[in-house]
Design goal:
Length: 238
């Protein structure tokens, strides 16, 4: 099965290990990985900030880049959801609406792809640590991927899971929200860090690099010993 990787900006710039883990994991599961270098930002930050016209330029680039892909897989629920929003954004456009729909229909978040398309629940991972899991807003509320991450984590050998209190609460990142509303965002992430501490877990796991960067940065600034990992890194442990 040929899979085209949509790495996302944050993985490309800050979390390259997540990209590597994603590729290695999918290859172990029998996928052939393609990485088109023409991919850029999906346009979400600009679009959510009201710059619709400018963001569409990036979206057209992404649509053209992935036009020949069989499956587009991303280690980010937020960015995967953005590609699925393209048909709505280009609605009524005689040229781009159908192209946007084609891309949306073949786009998947990583854990969603593994469970729903590959039909795999146990990837053979071993991770003998105590962990908790942060459910990101876009991935759960908008993309609707809730069960796949937990199904995969439940099959990781040696992993001890503890539920995160207030897991449905936003971490305060929200893309440009954390910049425009920094004081509110800080209070939200502080609350999230407190909940993570309550679990007494050694690792915080998540599936969106933005959330992990936000929470992880706050954990580091507060000098807490909790480590932060993307779920791809855990599933690739063996």
């Amino acid at each position: 099965m040929k899979v085209t990787l949509f790495a996302t900006c944050l993985v490309d710039l800050f979390h390259s290990n997540v990209g590597k883990a994603t590729v290695e994991l999918l290859e172990r599961l029998g996928c052939k990985i393609d990485f088109p270098e023409a991919q850029i930002c999906c346009g979400q930050p600009a679009y959510n900030s009201g710059y619709t016209k400018g963001s569409k330029e990036a979206m057209r680039q992404m649509i053209n880049t992935f036009q020949e892909a069989e499956y587009v897989v991303s280690p980010s629920g937020s960015c995967a959801f953005m590609l699925k929003e393209y048909p709505h954004i280009f609605k009524g456009d005689p040229v781009w609406e159908s192209k946007a729909k084609e891309l949306a229909e073949k786009t998947y978040e990583l854990t969603q792809f593994i469970v729903d398309v590959l039909q795999v629940e146990d990837v053979g991972a071993i991770f003998e640590e105590t962990v908790t899991y942060h459910t990101s807003c876009h991935m759960t509320r908008l993309l609707g991927v809730k069960e796949a991450p937990m199904i995969l984590l439940n099959h990781v050998k040696g992993l001890k899971f503890t539920e995160l209190p207030g897991k449905e609460q936003c971490c305060g990142f929200g893309g440009t929200f954390s910049v425009k509303m920094a004081q509110i965002s800080e209070q939200m992430v502080d609350e999230k860090v407190c909940h993570v501490e309550e679990t007494e877990a050694d690792y915080l796991i998540g599936a969106d690099a933005g959330c992990l960067m936000n929470i992880g940065g706050r954990i580091e600034r507060k000098g807490k010993p909790i480590k932060v990992l993307h779920i791809a890194e855990v599933l690739n442990s063996h």
